[in-house]
Write a structure and sequence with these properties.
mainly alpha
Length: 210
């Protein structure tokens, strides 16, 4: 048996190896713990940022659906297109105004809209598709698409109204306007309120267990 003497204390080789293994294991555990702590902190940072972007995103959807508008909202880059639409006479001035107010709002919120889609992808990559924040951004992205599609249908229905069944056109326009414009207590408004309400309650604690 190999005897090792350290500071007057004798150790056989098996004890020395055991102590070495124990030291290696302890070092490994510290490294694993540090990795988990780092991962948890990164997730926490993503969640905190996502909560901030989420509130802005909800406000963007509300603004896109704001029924109160003015000509001053229309971006000057759309003036030529508006004049062309008016000359063609396929849609009324009010309808053209509605459509280009929406287009101008979309343009004004271009950077905010990019952040919605970027954050949605980032959350999916970090937490997967079964996470509250991932689902919230999926919902907001879907609603933005729904509003855009509603304006598209609204424009087509107005352009084709003389060639289509009047009741069908009336129904199509009414359905589109329900999505285009927000009213207190409507489906989309309640959906946004619920998303923000839950997010606010989760902000009160470290959001690692959403």
């Amino acid at each position: 048996m190999l005897i090792i003497v350290l500071g007057g204390i004798k150790f056989d080789s098996s004890v020395s190896e055991w102590l070495s293994s124990l030291s290696t294991f302890a070092t490994l555990m510290v490294a694993v713990y540090a990795l988990f702590q780092w991962k948890e902190q990164k997730q926490y940072d993503v969640q905190v940022e996502a909560l901030s972007v989420l509130r802005v995103s909800a406000d963007v959807v509300r603004n896109l659906r704001n029924p109160i508008s003015s000509s001053g909202e229309i971006n000057e880059k759309f003036f030529n297109a508006m004049n062309t639409e008016l000359e063609q006479g396929k849609m009324s001035q009010n309808v053209i105004h509605e459509i280009y107010v929406f287009q101008s709002r979309m343009l004004r919120h271009e950077e905010d809209l990019k952040r919605v889609y970027q954050m949605k992808e980032r959350l999916w990559a970090t937490f997967g598709d079964n996470h509250y924040l991932t689902n919230s951004f999926e919902t907001i992205a879907k609603r933005i698409k729904d509003i855009n599609n509603a304006y598209h249908k609204y424009a087509i229905a107005n352009q084709m109204k003389d060639n289509l069944d009047k009741d069908m056109v009336r129904t199509e326009l009414a359905n589109a306007r329900k999505i285009m414009y927000g009213m207190s207590g409507d489906e989309i408004s309640k959906e946004l309120d619920d998303i923000i309400s839950k997010a606010d309650s989760l902000k009160k604690r470290k959001p690692t267990l959403f």
